Amino acid sequence: MKDALLRVEDLDFVYDSDRGPVKVFESLSLEIDRGEFVAVLGHNGSGKSTLAKHFNAILLPAGGTVYVDGMSTADEELLYEIRRRVGMVFQNPDNQIVANIVEEDVAFGPENLGVPSAEIRERVNDALRTVGMYGYREHAPHRLSGGQKQRVAIAGILAMKPECIVLDEPTAMLDPTGREEVMRTISALNRESGVTIVLITHHMDEAARCARVVVMDSGKIIADGPPKSVFTEIELLRSVGLAVPQTVELAYSLRQKGFDLPLNCLDVEECAQAVSALFAGRKV
Amino acid sequence: MSILRCENLTHIYGKGTPFEHVALDSVSFAMERGEFVALIGHTGSGKSTLIQHLNGLLKPDGGAVYFDEKNIWDEKSDVRKVRFKVGLVFQYPEYQLFEETVGKDIAFGPKNMGLAEDELKERVREAASFVGIDEELLEKSPFELSGGQRRRVAIAGIIAMRPEALILDEPTAGLDPRGRDEILSRIAEYRSNTGSAVLLVTHSMEDAARYAERLVVMNGAHVFMQGTPAEVFSRAEELQSAGLAVPQITRVCMRLRELGVDIDPATYTVEEAVRQLTRLKNGAAGGVPNA
Q: In Å, how far is B256's CA from the nearest CA of chain A?
């Protein structure tokens, strides 16, 4: 039986702007199972952040229902339980740090949940070890690098022991090193602790590392599947302003020139093997 | 003749304190008129410190910076004038917008140059159209615009000064692929229309390879490498050992080379890789006998 942790059913959402109401979603449906590692891709304005904010009741549906672990986000009495299960990490690390010491910042969430102090201590230490920031527990957050700050933000969520973390472009403001730190941290969380991860991003290489990719455009889901099948939809992705990895672009262009090559080799090694096989065959 | 040149430039933060940190260690590099150069390096390699010297925001602790072959800190030169000629766009420049309207914000720089009202209007219109900001937006508050539009307004504010060298510190950070391509192609267009030199600070080897004629790679307060994209990417292994990424397509070509395919391992665009592989297939080059 399927075990949907997040279930979006016929979601409608409308923004009010000075030019009148703007429809973002109309009857959008999506299910994310416990333990999944899902990327939500789309360009700015595609609705991906708006969707993310529905996952822990920051935004409430105008129509339809969003269920978290079977609880409707529209039920105000369940708000506490919903936010305990789904934690959010945002784009700008400087906007989500509240304390002057790393460990105090991480303790902020569990303190608000009323966790006993001995247990808070334990949760903070565990969370900081999980993201590899334990050695910095007594440092001032503002002196950390962007990647380190995002890992502290993730630890702050982990200390609340959520079942799911929704990250809204967590690497957009980071350099390549910081991006890699964050990607490794969330991949390990998913793999080793079974935390459900929803990663909102427009970096293709990050999406390629997830098990499932959901592509959004104008508030609609236009593709949903494993990266290997989604990224072969090169014309579709281009038509909505998304780029594909260079490996796929190479395979696509070569196919157009009459080469017999699979489109679904995403990483460098697979791609090089597939291309070289083309030539190995010819030598015989 | 170079438009910007630095010679043995050294900069030390917190000199004489326990926090002393050498951010630039005897850095020399030059940029020709009209050239498109990309400055690459990871965080802390000295990129931002370097560009703040190029228009005199920071003063060298050693060495010198020349604009138009004149030392900008020479008694006879006027650093303020250099700042009008070397336009510097910071990271996340949209946070620096402060005026009531978009038009006034774009006009701020050129107004400080003492331009007449007519000239000012003309420049604001021109700069706005360069970055793709509609004229009707000029009367709006910057806060009514989207993030991407605000960033373009900030860039227009620099372009309106018609700088002879335009320096941009990660102008595409945080943008989606469409926004990134739009900004970079507008900058390329600005350069081809005006002949201004462009220095693009970026983390993206792909963007650098696609737009720049020459790359300058910084690592640990030094210039680590410089040359055409082909020259720089031919040393991909050194780049990787310094913790710098090379374009994914270059990594594919390096691996293909190891697998015995006769392709240039320094290939850095998909188009070029396709061209070489097609030629190989058609047997016009060596490596595939009896093709």
A: 5
Q: Which residue from A minimizes the CA distance to B249?
A: A246
**Run of H or E residues at A269:** helix A268-283
Interchain proximity B287–A279, CB inside 8 Å = yes
Domains and CATH numbers, chain A: 4-244 (3.40.50.300), 245-284 (no CATH)
A29 interfaces chain B, CB cutoff of 8 Å: no
pLDDT string in tens for chain A (284-residue length) = 457 999 999 999 998 877 788 889 989 999 999 999 999 998 888 899 899 999 999 999 999 999 999 999 999 999 999 999 999 999 888 888 889 999 999 999 999 989 999 999 999 999 999 999 999 999 999 888 888 999 999 999 999 999 999 999 998 878 888 888 899 999 999 999 999 999 999 888 899 999 999 999 999 999 999 999 999 899 999 888 888 889 999 999 999 998 989 888 888 999 999 999 988 755 44
Beta bridge partners of A23: A14
Which residues does B189 contact at the CB level (< 8 Å), separation at least 6? B130
B157 at the A interface (CB within 8 A)? Answer: no
Q: Are B157 and B87 in contact (CB under 8 A)?
A: no
pTM recorded for the entire structure: 0.83
What length is written for chain A? 284
Report ipTM (2 d.p.): 0.76
Q: Chain A: give the shortest CA distance to residue B133, in Å.
A: 18
